[in-house]
Structure formats: structure tokens, C-alpha cells
Amino acid sequence: MAAIEVEGLTKAYGDTLANDHLDFAIERGEIFGYLGPNGAGKSTTIRQLMGFQSPTAGTARVLGADVRDEAALRETRARIGFLPGELAFTPSVTGDEFLDYQAALKGGERRDELLDLFTPPLDRKIREYSTGNKQMLGIVQAFMHDPDLVVMDEPTSGLDPLKQEAFNRFLRAERDRGKTVFFSSHVLGEVRRVCDRVGIIREGRLVTVEDVEELLARGGKRVRVHTEAPLTAADLGVDGIVDFAAEGGEAQFTFTGDYDALFAALAARRIVDIEIDEPPIEDVFMHFYGGDDA
Ligand SMILES: Nc1ncnc2c1ncn2[C@@H]1O[C@H](COP(=O)(O)OP(=O)(O)OP(=O)(O)O)[C@@H](O)[C@H]1O
């Protein structure tokens, strides 16, 4: 059984279809990134998965519990960790008091271990917290009862690059222990480092669900080559050259063809320098799906 199964999930706010017949499944033990620009409908999906809002049509099952079945969902909640977009807290409580309260509700056996990795100032009042500190406190509470599934709304917003990397390492280790992670983001490059698959939502509709490695493999490589004599794409005469641009002896292109053919064509030139890299994942998506964000 999948960890999350979304079937025809639809949510209308008046005339706005925030979620429009969404269908996708998240397997146990995977990290799934839910991506889309602002207002695409990510939080709306998450609120329905957590049972905070009921679908207009369709449904979803979370660890087997139908989100329309309050009793089933209530029982399942102990096995779910949740990080909302905005943490709700009483402004006068300290981080420690907040965690005590959360631990009393759902358990907190991994609290100390998590506080070694994520370091909010526990004795300060949460209203004095920076965005990043609030986010770290939220991450600790989402994982401290050792849930099977964790659902997070933009967990990396506000984290500095080092903490973000620590968070990615932590998520991968959790995945390797069999946990399922579903989280939203609007920055594709950020999730590329950690997600197994990504789903892209735009204007309430699911544009695609992709395996990240496969997508990057299809997206080819970014080639920069500096030759003594200027190059043109036609000179090379190789299939799979996209977005060719050259200035003087410096040519750049995305390559999705056969490397033997490319190297045979290049072997006939004097090469001053060459670089072959993974392209930015943003470029790969633009190439396949166009559009503005994501
Ligand atoms: N309670 C509500 N009442 C009316 N419209 C809403 C409500 N909540 C969300 N919407 C609308 O539904 C659409 C999807 O919003 P949602 O918050 O799910 O997007 P999002 O992808 O999470 O965006 P962001 O990245 O900005 O958080 C938007 O057009 C938004 O204005």
C-alpha cells in the first residue's frame, strides 16, 4: 500500500479551483517533493491530507486512512509528523515549553537527538525567534515522535545553506530507515539534492510527476568547449545539440545525444578547454515543460 494515495482530489474556493482532480501516489520509503509557484495549490493539498480541510470532490488516503474519515485519520495521526507553513504557538511560551506540550500530545523520544542537529534557542520565547529558528523548532516537533510519514509545507524556507544541507542529510537518513517524506517547495534546485521524485503543480493541476534522476538523465549534460577555431553546431554535425551559443572560440550547448559521436566530432578540432556538467534542473524543466516558475 502506498503511503499517500490521492484520487481525483479537488478543492474549490468559490470560483477558484485550488486543486483540480489531482491523482498521484507516494510510495513508502520515498522522499517526494511537491513543487509549484506561489498560489499553485500546494498548501491546499497538504491541508486536505492532514484532514484540516475536506475535499470538494475526490479523496486521499494517508497511511491507509481516508481523509474524509475523521476517526480513522485521528488514529493515524500518531504515525504522522507535520510541519505547517506557519507554526501555530502561544507567543509567550519558550521553545522548550512548546516541545514539552507537543511531546505530551504525541511523544518525543527523539527530541534530544534532533536537538543535536537542529538548534533553536530553547529557553527563549518563540515570539523572539528568527524565521530559521522557528523552522528548526518545527522540524524537531515534526520528527520527535518518530513518525512513519512526515508531511511538511515549505520546510527549508528560512534555513541557512549549512542547516539546509544538514536537513537534507537527515531526510536521506530517515528515508533509508524506511520513512516517507512529502514536502512542498517552490525552489526546484533545492529539492533536486534530496528528492527521489517530484510532482509539479501549477494553477491547481498536476503538470507531471517525475523521477529526479531520470529527468536529469533525459535533460542531458551542459557542455562548454573552448576551441582554437570558432565552432558552429552545423560544423559538429551531431544529433542532440540543443541551445547552442558561441562567442569567439567558446561554445556552450546542452547535449542529449551519443557521446562517442560528439567526441569523434570534437577530436577533429584543437580543444583549449572543455567542461561537461549536469545542467541546472530549472533548465531541464524549462526545456520539457516551459512556463515561468518551478
Ligand atoms: N481559504 C481560502 N479561501 C479562498 N481562496 C483560497 C483559500 N486558500 C487558498 N486559496 C486560493 O487557492 C489557491 C491555492 O492556494 P495555496 O495556498 O494552496 O497555494 P500554494 O501553492 O500553497 O502557494 P504558496 O507557495 O504561496 O504558499 C490560490 O489561488 C489561493 O488564493
TrEMBL record:
Keyword ATP-binding among UniProt keywords: yes
User: Could you list the residue ranges forming a coiled coil in this record?
Assistant: none
Name under which the protein is recorded = ABC transporter ATP-binding protein
Q: Where do the ABC transporter domain residues begin and end?
A: 4-228
Keyword Calcium among record annotations: no
Keywords from the named record: ATP-binding, Nucleotide-binding, Transport
| Alphabetized Pfam families for the sequence | ABC_tran (PF00005)
Where exactly are the transmembrane stretches of this chain? none
Q: In the record, what terms sit under GO molecular function?
A: ATP binding
Please give the InterPro entries that the UniProt record associates with this protein: AAA+_ATPase, ABC_transporter-like_ATP-bd, P-loop_NTPase
Give the species. Haloplanus litoreus
Protein family per UniProt: Belongs to the ABC transporter superfamily.
